[in-house]
Specification:
The chain is 50% helix and 8% strand.
Length: 413
Amino acid sequence: MVRVEDINLTDWEFWKRPHDERHAAFQSLRSEPRLVRFEEPEVIIVPQGPGYYALTRHADVVEASRRPQDFCSGEGAISIPDMPAEMNEYFGSLINMDDPRHAKIRRIVARAFSPRMIQRFEDQVEAVARQIVDEVRAGGTGDFVQDVAARLPLKIICDMMGIGEERYKAVLDASNVILAGNDAEYLPVGDGEQIALALLTAGQTLKEIVEELGRQRRENPTDDLTSALVNANIDGESLTDQELGSFFILLVVAGNETTRNSIAHGLDLFTRHPEQRALLTEDFDGRIAGAVEEIVRYVSPVIWMRRTATRDTMLNEHEIKAGDKLLLYYWSANRDETVFTDPDRFDILRSPNPHVAFGGPGPHFCLGAHLARREITVMFRELLTRLPGIRAGEPDRLESNFVNGIKRLPYTF
């Protein structure tokens, strides 16, 4: 057992360790009766904050999620330090909002996602997945992320919004920067001002793409999601350009990066666990739903989200003070021994499987969970049916404490 006093979740060196060592550390944190507090990272562009508590147990993550009035998102959900105002312009979308503004935006977005539109893009997922596998069979680059995992969610999101293929690379590159963590391939590590500039530039790129499209759709509406969003009016409320831009950034980052990592990790898992792959192919339709849930539980593409206490309160048996920052570690909650039998085992037949990979219960449960499940399901149906010999090599992992990402994944078939 790793000693709790030897664990530092703020230290980037911790996140360079092998996954099994990190999971052992979180197991120690889950067994600690008290909540463990960590210092905040030092960031040049903002003062160092007071620190944060790590919520590592499933029960604590679920409880904090279902009490937004006590544990808010509006102070920042995706950053440990409080985000500067200029950052919130780009990244202050639904994920960083509380009611009533959160409810307003969610109502408009939910109205735009009509059943007809959802069905149309669910049908398109199958066509895109078939096309991707056709091209892989004809000869791909040998990188599964580039050839398969990144392409499906990126194309679906861009097509939903009405963004042309000529913009795909700009969208993908910007989303990679936004979720780069501490990876030197995407960000100038160690230079706070340059990191902030890179993030702002990426956010500006995405915002400009969708705002230009939004102006076109106000003048000439079509049947895409951008048109539905910019022309929606519910009780006199509609999206501003800033709200449209920040929602698009959320959609691209959350919908693209997390789904692509689930697909990439899925191939890696089925390569490392051939017995689970055999179970799935024996009865694909009967077992794929459980397999998708187990992939996202086991992988936890989003490692944490932050909440901030709005008042003095209790969280289960823990005393919380107003202003305390809490990091909800989904990555740890999904391995909680009190909830999941043999949690470190990848088991597509696991039932029940009350994971929190799409967030805990409450207003911030992932809007795109249904579409993500659909994309993962369809992609593996195509892969395992038409490329039954496909296997993954050793993954090149993203250096991040926020996203459990795979940058590259060699494959053969």
